[in-house]
Each structure stands twice: as C-alpha cells, then as structure tokens.
C-alpha cells in the first residue's frame, strides 16, 4: 500500500505542532544546534537508531555542533505522515532526560 502525500493544509497543521520545523524545498526542515561535535554526533546516533525503528531515514548534514535534517517520503512524492511522525520523534530526542 502506497504512503499518502499530505495536503498543504495538513502540512501546515503539522508544522504548528512541530517546534523548530519549517517547510523548505518541499521537505520538512530543521537545524539542530548542540554544545559541541560529541553532542551532535550523539544525537545523530540516537536519531539513526530511531529512524531505523521507524523504517524511515532522514536526509541530513552535520558540521561540528549542527545537524540539519530534511524529511520527505520519496514513495509519496512529498511529505507524508511518516515524516511528521519522525520529526516529532527527533524532537523528543532533544528534550531533557532523553
């Protein structure tokens, strides 16, 4: 069964619930900032395990203490609920106690 692409309205509603995320080039986009490279790499490690669990993998880029993440569902031809769910899960990794 194909993954459904979200409508523009659904994407805007989701962005209202996703702190720090925006729409850029047709993808959910966020830049995470950390104290140093080790913290950024730790986030990426936890995020990789989470993405594998979701079977949905981000496009990302890391330089020193910054991790830039873009999410889209290629099979859907745009943003799907899978992207929204992974964005929320990635946000949870930056909450205190995680």
Tell me about this structure.
This protein is an alpha+beta fold. About 40% of the residues lie in helices and about 20% in strands. It is built from 3 helices and 4 strands. It has helices at about 10-15, 35-55, 80-90, and strands at about 20-25, 25-35, 60-65, 65-70. It has a 4-stranded antiparallel beta sheet with strand order 1-2-4-3, with helices on one face. Strand 3 (about 60-65) and strand 4 form a beta hairpin. It starts with 7 loop residues before the first helix and ends in a 6-residue tail after the last helix. The mean pLDDT is about 95.
Task: For the structure shown, list the relevant keywords.
3 helices; 98 residues; globular; 41% helix; four-stranded antiparallel β-sheet
Number of helices: 3
Q: How widely separated are the two ends?
A: 34 Å
Shape call = globular
As residue ranges, the low-confidence spans are none
With strands numbered from the N-terminus, the spatial order across the biggest sheet is: 1-2-4-3
Radius of gyration: 13 Å
Tell me the β content. 15-25%
Number of strands: 4
Helical amount: 40-55%
Order of helices and strands: HEEHEEH
Structural class assignment:
alpha+beta
The largest pleated sheet is described as:
4 strands, antiparallel
Topology:
Blueprint: H1 8-17, E1 22-24, E2 27-33, H2 37-54, E3 59-63, E4 66-71, H3 81-92
Antiparallel strand pairs: 1-2, 2-4, 3-4
Helix pairs in contact: 2-3
